[in-house]
Amino acid sequence: MPRTSDHPDSATPSQAAPVVELRQLRKSFGDLEVLKGIDLAVRPGEHVVLFGPSGSGKSTVLRSINLLEPPTSGSLRFDGVEYGPGIPGEPQAAERGRPIDLRRNIGMVFQQFNLFPHLTALENVALPLRSVRGCKRPQAEHQAAEALRRVGLLERAAHYPRQLSGGQQQRVAIARALALDPQVMLFDEPTSALDPELVGGVLATMRELAETGMTMLIVTHELGFAREIGDLNVFMEDGQVVETGDREIYAGPTNPRTSAFLSAVL
Ligand code: ADP
Ligand code: MG
Predict the structure, then answer these.
(1) Cβ of residue 56 lying under 6 Å from some atom of ligand 1
(2) What is the pTM of this model?
(3) For ligand 1, what atom is nearest to the CA of residue 60?
(4) ipTM exceeding 0.90?
(5) 220: helix, coil or strand?
(6) Cβ–Cβ under 8 Å, residues 182 and 102
(7) What's in the keyword line of the UniProt record (predicted)?
(8) For residue 161, what are the domain limits?
């Protein structure tokens, strides 16, 4: 996929084969086309930020990547395997991957953290290890504790969601995704539901995760954070990628639509 600027840090694997690659991805709901041919590549270890106005299709992009919304047409490759219906006029892929194999390699964190209120932090993180991965309880709890340690909440393992702040609950949700050892983590406005004083803790956890080399695709309105973390920054509007760039995009966008959006929000 074309890049409008070189990667700022030559040590990062910007030339490696993409782990997620969308080409000409389209999605319609009835007569409404909400993704109008998205091209996007996420390479191993890269931190990609998607930003743009409400309704531009950012969540639909994330939901398409793990097939929560099956694309109408286009190519969706994960780790080189085709999961999309294909690009009109191009030869069909010989084989299509199974959604279950795609999803097991993708962790997703939403605005609403959706923890079970009657389970402790540890049990919330251990549950998918048992139900999705088939781990036995001791193994699941061991891995869940390790994931809680990574988000700095091991000492809260026995707390119930109501005993945790919203920011801590979101970090438990991050641990729940991390515990499944995904290749890529998708974040859809992970701090939008939080009181302002709780945003920083969640962003700090995400920053630490980024520093471990986790591949991340993040939808966020926290553009200060985006500027700090985004190796590739993608501005979307009206179901299309308008502009992509490195961190300079926030200070000096080249497209007037990106400029208009940034000057309205910054
Ligand atoms: P964003 O995350 O950028 O705010 P979305 O991806 O949520 O945008 O939505 C893009 C467009 O798709 C919006 O017009 C929204 O109303 C529409 N849309 C999203 N999901 C559905 C759905 N399940 N059915 C119909 N329209 C939808
Ligand atoms: Mg959204």
Answers:
(1) yes
(2) 0.93
(3) 6
(4) yes
(5) coil
(6) no
(7) Amino-acid transport, ATP-binding, Cell membrane, Membrane, Nucleotide-binding, Transport
(8) 114-177
